Sequence to fold (438 residues):
Amino acid sequence: MNIFRKKAVSYVVLVTTAFCMLFTSPDAAQAATVSSVTREITLESRSAGSADKSSWYVDYVGYNTVTKDTNTTYNNSPYSIKVVNNTYSVTEVKKTYKVKAGTYYRASAMVKCSGLEADPSATTKNTGAFIGENFSYNNSEPSTSEKWKNISYTFYTGDSTEYSISLKNGVWYGECKGTVWFDNVKLEELKTTDKWNVLTIFFTRANGTGKMSNGKKVKIKSSISDSKIKEYKKILNGLYDDMDKVSGGLMDVKNIDYRVCNMKLKDFLPYDYTDQWGVDIHCLQYNWDVPKVRRKIMNIIGDKNYQQIILIVPHSKTFGWWGLTGGGFNGINCSVIQTGYEDYMINSGYPTNVFIHEMAHGLEHNTNVGRSTPIASLHSSADYGYSSNSEADSYEWYKDYYRDKIKGGKGIDPAVYWKPLNSGKVISDDMTLGSGIY
Fold:
């Protein structure tokens, strides 16, 4: 038995309401309402020396309003951009930046909200004011605070030399109404490091009911013991040496922080996939979009600089997977590992393999950003002549995959081992709001 047979893994985005919606565009019929909007037509630049002179444009606004506000501003600035949702909806104000390929950036803004209210019928209640990728679920954490608060979104450009950022009141499938003011909007180019700090959080309790896509309801009640946590820490500490070996020194795990969280996980999402034998599987996964859970994780992260997050969760036979990897929290790759397979991990001779596998999924995704032709899928070893009959066989595939030794340059790009630090330089603080609909 090996990882490829034991678990089914795909690159899913855990930060979204439903990963199947990640690249879903809003209905075209909704976009037809865009013409009936009041907006400011001509606004002066507030930063004559800024590097980027292109304007912010109303990208999607519905029956809402976008205006310049000189009365409500942050730190006595000349004006803010005021976005009012008169109905449960989404408004996006967009700006396209010229960026460097293969570079990390952070877009940030100060935001203040008033009367913000989530649509009771929306798929997610994790909504509010965002800054993030245009027409996407790749966003900052939301704010609903009626006091000025900083929000930020970190992204990697890959092969792209342009990137569109939006100021958002609401998010698709998380519509809301109310007012948001955006001020002090900035784009920073971030410094990077190849020294990885890994945050591991043990969620020790799960107790709730989930509903699968086939309508079946399942009660889940499980926990992680102190002895199990101790066992996993011992396994994870092997990453210091094993990641250096598998990557040929390209990836350096500098530190692993451990946190234990006794918050009860009680919300689950349906998760469907087709396994390698063509069998359709219906199961569940944890819902990381619950505001209370997300706030807990973000509070644990705090202002520390992490390059990887690992969430260890209680086992349930209802979950037809061992590990999942996704976009994470504000651009930090995140892997979720289900307990229950420790004996196999240890007896296989390669106890860290599941972590090496899941972290490779995140790097696979990072490498593919902006590429017209993706690299080899992590699950396609047989297509490149590699055997997966044992963990030793899988390890040989991982080594070549991590070191970009797959034929045709189909492995992980060594550039993505360099991850962003919190520090950087401002390349634009322009807040010019142009006319018309983009």
About this structure: Residues 1-53 have pLDDT under 50 and may be disordered. Residues 3-19+195-417 form one domain. Residues 191 and 424 are 5 Å apart (CA to CA).
